[in-house]
Design a protein that fits this description.
Layout: E1 2-8, H1 15-23, H2 27-34, H3 39-59, E2 70-72, E3 78-80, E4 85-92, E5 95-102, E6 107-112, H4 127-135, H5 139-157, E7 174-177, E8 180-186, E9 193-199, E10 205-210
Parallel strand pairs: 1-10
Antiparallel strand pairs: 1-5, 2-3, 4-5, 6-9, 7-8, 8-9
Helix pairs in contact: 1-3, 2-3, 4-5
Length: 213
């Protein structure tokens, strides 16, 4: 399957241009984002919205992109009504990223590498994940590899956080959610973060591009 991924490092964007572009979006999109008080969190969401629109308009111009199509299902997974596209977004202080597919689902997640005690996440980890992390020399990176795989897969499955996190074992590249399997691959975008992409089939073509606004 074919996947398009666009990412942006927030600090490398023009703040005034970001705000000008974002102000052009309808209130139904801007108002929920503007409720976020943390400036970095808000900026990450702003960039994610702009990345999504850029990807769809660039690679699927015939589908007639409109923010009026933007919806969320009963599990809060966003989608574009009437468009045969699936997308997923993730952001943190140092990155905004969006993946896009046609006809098949996708999920993406990224986390900054920072000190973490995996034991604090004991209740959210599968027993095999806990055993794997404990056996690793670099437990921090092992934890974030598992966590971003798990989050990406749950986004691709449409379950999100509504699924029991400790029921999903993501210590290997192939991850099962209930009776469905998902393939995951790492995206090496920066040394200070871990990012994974998840799809229901092996990716045959990956289009990866950095975008600056």
């Amino acid at each position: 399957m074919e996947v398009w991924v666009a990412y942006s490092f927030p600090g490398q964007n023009d703040g005034e241009r970001l705000e000008a572009l974002f102000a052009q979006l309808p209130a139904s999109i801007t108002e929920p984002v503007n409720r976020y008080r943390n400036p970095a969190d808000r900026k990450g969401r702003v960039i994610s919205k702009l990345l999504l629109e850029t990807l769809v308009r660039k690679h699927f111009p015939h589908q007639g992109f409109s923010w009026g199509r933007y919806r969320k299902d009963d599990l809060s997974k966003p989608y574009l009504e009437g468009m045969a596209l699936s997308f997923s977004t993730s952001h943190h202080d140092a990155l905004s990223i969006v993946c896009l597919t046609s006809g098949k689902s996708c999920g993406v997640d990224s986390e900054l590498l920072k000190p973490v005690d995996p034991e604090l996440y004991h209740d959210f980890l599968h027993p095999d994940e806990r055993e794997f992390i404990a056996s690793r020399t670099d437990q921090t990176t092992s934890f974030y590899n598992i966590w971003t795989r798990k989050e990406a897969v749950l986004k691709a499955s449409g379950m999100g956080i509504h699924s029991e996190l400790n029921s999903v074992d993501a210590h290997e590249d192939m991850v099962w959610v209930e009776k469905s399997s998902y393939s995951t691959i790492p995206l090496f975008l920066s040394d200070d973060m871990v990012t994974h992409l998840a799809t229901p089939e092996m990716i045959s073509r990956l289009h990866l591009e950095e975008i600056r606004f």
